[in-house]
Amino acid sequence: MSELWEWVLLTSVMGTVLAGIILAARWVLRTKLTPNWHYMLWMLLIVRLLLPWTPESPLSVFNLLSSHDVQKVDLSSQIDKANSIHYADPNLDPAVARQHERQKSNSTRKEIEDGQAETFDFTWLEITGLIWIAGVLVLSGKTILSTYLWNRNMRRTKILTPSHEVYQMYMQVKEELGIRRSIPILISDQLKTPALSGWMRPRIVMPASLMDTLSVEEIRHIMIHELMHAKRHDIAINWIMHGLLIVHWFNPILWLASARMREDQETSCDARVLRYIRPEQSLAYAHTLIKLIEHNAKPKRAVGITPITGTKQQLLRRLTLIKQNHKYNRSLKWSILGLTVVILISVLALTNAKSGWLSTSISKDEVRELMRNSVDRFAGLQGSFTNTEGELIEFKVLQGDRPFSYVKKGNIETIYKLYHSYTRENGEYTNIRSFLEPAGRPTPKKYPVLPDVPRRDQAKSGLAEPIVAPEYAAVDYLKDDTLWSIQDETSMLGRSVIRIGGELPNDMKAKLQAYQFTMWIDKETGVLLKREVMDTSGKITPEITVQEIDFNSNFEPLDYFVLTADEYNELGQKFLPIKVEPFFN
Questions:
Q1: What are residue 541's DSSP bridge partners?
Q2: 227-236: per-residue pLDDT in tens?
Q3: Fewer CB atoms inside 10 A, N or C side of the chain?
Q4: Residues 67, 71, 72, 73: is their CA dihedral positive or negative?
């Protein structure tokens, strides 16, 4: 739910920016763009709010926003305070040492969980997400109720019969407009202004009082106007916009944009009517609108209807546009201007910020901290990656109080469990390696416990260690801070990642026969998702490319490498200098 709510917030921000651009364009070009192009601009907003993804562009207006503003992530809630692991005392009995490690691991995990639970962002997302859902449910219920009441009122209407004097005129207008679908005319005592009602089954609703007071010509103007709405499927557009407002109910700018869209919808329809009727009838059409507004100053507003009248302020604007309609006269220059504005706004606001253009608020120290303590940010991890030779390597890793790893490359499998690693090739055990002293105690660590020293992977995941504990593998790449930088924040495998890169130190240049490097670091855990190097000719060599990954996986280590007693005795006599606890059922 939190991910959906974050996406809604981000989309709402982008929609607000686009709505602001459209409102500004309407004001600047209010006498330059035709009413049809004014209405067309709002279709861009609907597209922006509907699409879950849009292409990236260096011209996108969202490049002006930093990633701190658009994709803000509180890294402090992700960074563990611990800078080093607590190693087991070599003088302790192995069982006691393991118990000691479990207590330390549980304590560390509890501190992490407590710290995450106390972060403001997490609580804010949860609370506001629940409020958002409540608002969506309330507005949805209100919409369903109002639609039901409207449809119930429609059952009390009467259908205009062919015997009525305006029926033949109506059928002629339909034929001239090229409308073949059945759109009946309903006579209602409940409605005071003409309107088109219904999306799937449209019908024109006429107040009974107007049928006796309006002339046939005035009724004809109304019929043309409402049939234009039906021909353009305006009610369907209104329903889509209303659905978006339900999702973004908390955004007042989008509510304002919807109101302005409905106004432009009516003026655009007026413009189409004026193109259909004879020029000398424009004044009569304006008089029809004035007569309708005098008959009902406050027309009913609902999602599924398009009343022909609005407020007096809206009517004044529509009459002004009707008066200016002769200026446009289907001129090519107005079409070119409108198309240019639509394309320009599409490039600016219908595209996302281009990767690499967004700045990042994350420091190098925070990136190092993520990489150094990555092993504390997941309980279980599994996936696969390809190496420099393109070989596929599968891995499964458990951290915490029960470190375990399983790595498979081709036909060779390696498992680490209970201070031992077991190797199997083509299904047969070939080696056992002990990490215990002859006295049966864990081998002391060779590295000092200092905050600036990379942490080793307790699960001894071998080929997967650069992914699981990336700073140890990356220390030689990053030892000169003047040579590398944080490039941007982007996405990979559906996760937010930090991309870093730069020039390799001289010794690494000679070792790798490369000049530059790039790494993709998972923003939440610090796990390495990709690393590649480039030589002076521009050739890029992928060193590590994660193909798939699953964080906090739940799997049982006993499902792998179960030794029988005979297998253990045979391998133990050959490879192990001491008698140890076997890993078998």
A1: 533
A2: 999 999 999 9
A3: C
A4: negative
Tokens coding 510: 């000679």
Tokens 């106007």 identify what position? 225
Biggest alpha carbon–alpha carbon distance for the chain: 109
Which ranges in the chain are annotated with CATH 2.50.20.10? 364-575
Q: Calculate the alpha carbon distances from 213 to 206, 210, 292 in Å.
A: 12, 5, 10
Task: Tally Cβ neighbours within 10 Å of residue 280.
Answer: 7
Amino acid at 114: D
pLDDT band at 87 (very low <50, low <70, confident <90, very high): very low
pLDDT of residue 443: 63
> What pLDDT score was predicted for residue 407?
93
Q: What is the pLDDT of residue 450?
A: 42
Over range 267-293, report the average pLDDT. 86
Cα atoms in the Cβ-side hemisphere of radius 13 Å centred on 500: 28
Length of the chain, in residues: 585
DSSP 442: B
Average pLDDT score, the chain: 79
Contact status, residue 277 vs residue 253, Cβ threshold 8 Å: no
Give the side-chain half-sphere CA count within 13 A for 86.
15
Highest mean predicted confidence (pLDDT) among 14-18, 278-282, 314-318: 14-18
Across-strand partners of 404? 398
49 φ, ψ (degrees, to nearest 5): -80, -25
Beta-carbon count within 10 A of 296 CB: 17
Sheet hosting strand 540-551, strand order edge to edge: 428-434, 420-425, 412-417, 404-409, 392-398, 380-386, 540-551, 528-534, 516-522, 495-503, 484-492
Q: Note the pLDDT of residue 330.
A: 53
CATH fold of 364-575 = outer membrane lipoprotein receptor (LolB), chain A (2.50.20)
pLDDT beyond 60 at 578: no
